[in-house]
């Protein structure tokens, strides 16, 4: 193999945090071992994920966590982002009952083992697995109930684990909880748009729950000396042209995705364009709620996987509802862009753009942490997809794929990470205060509605035997983590499609 001609070494700041990420429902399994049901148990056992997949066993991380931490050590991981399963601590969601001893013991042992291995834990409190008992009481649509319930749960976590956890993330991707859970119905609890307000109501309460947990930490646990942030997801939207309508479409797309959750926290209220489109269908914050939300995040967690274009529709959409309210041709794209197995366009420069946008618009205190970035690619699955009639757009690894002899060789993912890490580096050079990067994901896992067919891991999991094998992308990242930097992509590794 002739080594590609690269253009130089990209060094990251000394204190940069390199890690890997997972979430409870996607990896733990042990669904019945002391854990109460969550909305994802209900949703997946009802058959809403592909091939009837559920998280009942997943990666069996609940039993294999020690082995998994050894693997992380061998990958030179400095930080590990995982989530706590709410219903493993509070099987009935009820914080008036004492938390489950079994649940406390599991997370306590996990934290001890991580610290023993010199790995810094970054802990997400809510990665989508709402206790079913709380959903039955109205879930994210019930303001009084859910804000208090989340605060009580957060307090239990801070109390039991805050001696060892210095980085907390209240919510993972509230946009997904609100839109996929309460509008498209692709995720639990699977509400499809019965009303044109449900996702805004859920989103409102998600924000208030975040603020409640952040306030509890600051008022009751300040002496623990940690930080509390939130992880928001968005793909960068680039205007398709310089026409004013398209520039406006790009602004709206960013404000209806990232801004919806970022602006109440960083700028004091919902984006103006949301209020204009939605009127009273978008709930309002009281003065005291605004105050509680403002600057309620000690760092800006950003999850970003892709980018796309924004184009104004030829005439305004009719009707109301989240997608109509945005008023952007959401699926407009560049067909030259490569695609991952999720069909998400591969647009590395968009990660640089969104980081610069976050820095410029929100100036987050504590800086920005990329809390997720990665790609799904799996030789067998996409070979199948490639043969689907009339199907897919070009993929980055067309041609490479069939030459790939092993499931553990994933040059496509190496290429993805190299390109995206160099985009992060470029953002830092342009003064974005990016403090860390977590690869999604440590393990192949339960990819929500997609089941087990979409593999994001840098470690291969054989779901029959639970055997783990480090992929070449894992070895690649281990070298990046150790060297605190990487060689820039070679010319031939650059991706096709528009770059603007
Ligand atoms: C994130 N979308 O999910 C989640 O935080 C992870 O749990 C998940 O495994 C990962 O990304 C990969 O999907 C998303 O439709 C799911 O835009 C869907 C979307 C975005 C993020």
From TrEMBL:
Secretion signal, residue range per the UniProt entry: none
Family listed: Belongs to the glycosyl hydrolase 1 family.
Keyword Hydrolase: yes
Keyword Ligase: no
Keywords: Glycosidase, Hydrolase
PROSITE patterns: GLYCOSYL_HYDROL_F1_2
Protein name: Beta-glucosidase
Species annotation: Durusdinium trenchii
